[in-house]
Design brief:
The chain is α+β, with helices and mostly antiparallel strands and 222 residues long. The protein is 39% helix and 19% strand. It has a 4-stranded antiparallel beta sheet, with no helix packed on it. A 3-stranded antiparallel beta sheet has the order 5-6-7. A hairpin with a 3-residue loop joins strand 6 and strand 7. The longest helix is centred in the first third of the chain and has 23 residues. The protein starts with 27 loop residues before the first strand and ends in a 29-residue tail after the last helix.
Length: 222
């Protein structure tokens, strides 16, 4: 087999889109993105009660100290200790804010793609990361819908494989989509274990192509 010497050139390694990492002959069956509002709202509500309690506690102390200083009961020299202390002590609040900012930034890079061979997850805040799970490695497909998900009518699909896992966050119709992913996994497993029996008419064999997509194309939720 001849290998093009340009194959490993840097220009060939600048993978930014899903199309850049597809194998030769690999076909996209479905692609989608998380619901933007649901994704950001989930970051806002995550740890919100603890954050509010923490802020009330700390800002109560800050206000009390400020009143004490204005009345001369607390020396101003203590500011050199008090300010750094509360900047550190408010760390849970800064983490909460950072998670919200991260969700706003990362949503533009997030994309989920189901091909005739695998599940691809595109993500990243600064750089672009790709996670790949082949159907023949999938052990379970689960759907979870939390309180925030119910409000925005979305859900998360958890895909567990032998050596890795992936989550497709904040997708519409998660039960239907999760069921279709499970169907593809089952069809592929049937091809491997029963190569000449129980095979769907539209899937003539694992070594050929999963030709008829069970997924309906859906527009991105921006």
């Amino acid at each position: 087999m001849n290998i093009d010497e340009k194959y490993f050139n840097e220009s060939q390694m600048q993978a930014n889109t899903v199309e850049d990492v597809l194998d030769g002959g690999e076909s996209v069956l479905w692609r989608g993105k998380p619901d933007k509002k649901a994704h950001i709202a989930a970051a806002v509500f995550r740890a919100l009660p603890i954050t509010i309690i923490w802020m009330i506690f700390d800002f109560g102390f800050i206000i009390g100290i400020s009143i004490g200083m204005s009345r001369g009961g607390i020396p101003l020299a203590l500011l050199g200790f008090i300010i750094p202390f509360f900047l550190v002590h408010l760390a849970p609040v800064w983490i909460w804010v950072a998670n919200i900012l991260r969700s706003v930034t990362e949503i533009k890079n997030m994309e989920y793609v189901l091909t005739d061979k695998r599940v691809l997850v595109r993500s990243g805040v600064i750089g672009i990361d790709f996670k790949s799970i082949y159907y023949n490695e999938v052990e379970s497909v689960n759907v979870k819908v939390g309180l925030t998900d119910r409000i925005f009518k979305v859900g998360d699909i958890y895909i567990n494989a032998k050596s890795s896992a992936a989550v497709l966050y904040d997708l519409h119709n998660p039960y239907i989509l999760g069921g279709k992913i499970q169907k593809v996994v089952r069809d592929i497993a049937t091809d491997i274990n029963y190569p000449n029996a129980l095979r769907p008419d539209y899937n003539p064999g694992y070594n050929t192509q999963y030709s008829d997509s069970p997924f309906e194309s859906q527009p991105f939720d921006n």
